[in-house]
Amino acid sequence: MSDIALLRTGIELPMKGEVVYFNYFWLRDNCSSSWDNSTQERTFDILAEADDMHATSACIKNESLEVIWSDGFQSRYDLNWLSRWHKGDNHGDLAVRARATWYGDHYQNMARFTYDDVIANPPSVADWAEAILDEGVALIQGMPNSNEGLKTLCELFGVVRPSFSGYTFDVKSKANPENLSYTDKALELHTDLPAEELAPGLQFLHCRINDAEGGNSLFVDATTVANALKQNYPEYFRILTEYEVPYRYTTDYQDVRAKQRIIELDPNNGEVSGIHFSQHLADVFDLSQRKMDIFYPAFRKFGQMLQDPQYLMTFRLNAGECIVFDNHRIAHGRSAFIKGSGARHLRGCYVDRGELRSVYRVLRAKYPKVEVVTPHQSAIEL
Ligand SMILES: [Fe+2]
Fold it and tell me: Which of 165, 167, 183 is nearest to 249 (CA)?
């Protein structure tokens, strides 16, 4: 095995049977002394270092790499810590989890929690967050019939994130609607607000009243559908992951525009992570007309697959329930009401997914998952 080599730009050292390389600037920037102990923020300024900053000596002692820098400063790095970064394991991330595919029959198995439970028990918040990370959707039951109840629920994950509609929005349907937002018409499957540069991450829909007949909620795991498209129509899948199309929302005082890919891929692993899909906010698509020849068949096929009953979960959202879902992963809509049959009021708002993941990392580290062992499993182990 070779010894440590001090090169012009970095250090080569033996590690677990191979020779690995670390850049001088990276090492100096990430010396343990670079972080403030109380804030845990970096206080070291790599910009102020000399252009030719380098190590003058380095050795391995007590499972650590010890380095003396050209200005005389000394640093020490745990070899296991260096190995993790060399392998790309980084900090590790509890919030990067395998997505659990679901289909149209998911309603009975959808994760359910009560408001009182999650308010009182942080481990239940960890379980709730985990259900949303894995399945993209969970139901909170026993909600108080108040605006404050929804706000309190949201704040278990983070602050309410405003959109171009404000901090919250109301979806109301009345027996005698006085304007279009109060109609009894069906709402086609969509994800919310793709016209925003960053479409909202997590959506909360709190059902305050539902006396109407009809008006069932429609939810689809779009990652399941996109993966089926990838398998059966790979060229369509490629088009929808590569082409960007415009979305737009306009009022008398707003003109919100953004371009999005219909199918999003997860930068962590290249898997399908979500979609941007809304026919009512789709602007005039501006691809070249030749590209329309392939784009529209792909777009139509994917949209038709979203509506396929094998993928479509249909259920009634009841007063006192709040459905919480990943707005990038889950397409949602509703069927039409029976005209004049009664009132329906949903109050909604958004929280960023980054806040969900942050809460999950902290709570799951503090409250590790308790695996439930069935009597049958116990007997086998005994
Ligand atoms: Fe919506």
Answer: 165
Centroid of ligand 1 to alpha carbon of 290 (angstroms): 32
| Distance in Å, CA 332 to ligand 1 centroid | 6
| 215, 219, 222 from 317: Cα distances, Å | 9, 11, 20
pLDDT in tens, 26-78: 999 999 999 999 999 999 999 999 999 999 999 999 999 999 999 999 999 99
Q: What is the mean pLDDT of residues 350-378?
A: 86
What CATH class is the domain 5-87? Answer: alpha beta
Structure-token pair, residue 347: 């109050």
**Cα 191 to middle of ligand 1, angstroms:** 6
Cα–Cα separations (whole angstroms), residue 360 to 114, 152, 381: 18, 17, 31
* CA 171 – ligand 1 centroid, Å: 9
d(CA 316, ligand 1 centre) in Å: 16
Q: Is the CATH code 2.40.50.140 the one for domain 107-366?
A: no
CA of 91 from ligand 1 middle (Å) equals 35
The answer to whether the CB of 199 falls within 8 A of the CB of 331 is: no
Task: Look at 120 and 181; give whichever has higher pLDDT.
Answer: 120
How far is residue 261's CA from residue 241's CA, in Å, rounded to a whole number? 6
Domain ranges of the chain: 5-87, 107-366
pTM for this predicted structure: 0.89
Ligand 1 centroid to 307 CA: how many Å?
A: 16
Least confident of 180-194, 269-283, 303-317, 365-379: 365-379
- Between the CA of 333 and the centroid of ligand 1 the distance, in Å, is 7
Q: Which amino acid is at 225?
A: V
From ligand 1's centre to the CA of 276, what distance in Å?
12
Whole-number Å distance, alpha carbon 205 to ligand 1 midpoint, is 9
Average pLDDT value over all residues in the chain: 92
Q: Given this model, what pLDDT does residue 268 score?
A: 78
Ligand 1 (ion): residues with CB under 5 Å are 192
Output the CA 36–ligand 1 centroid distance in Å: 44
Say if residues 164 and 193 touch (Cβ distance below 8 Å): yes
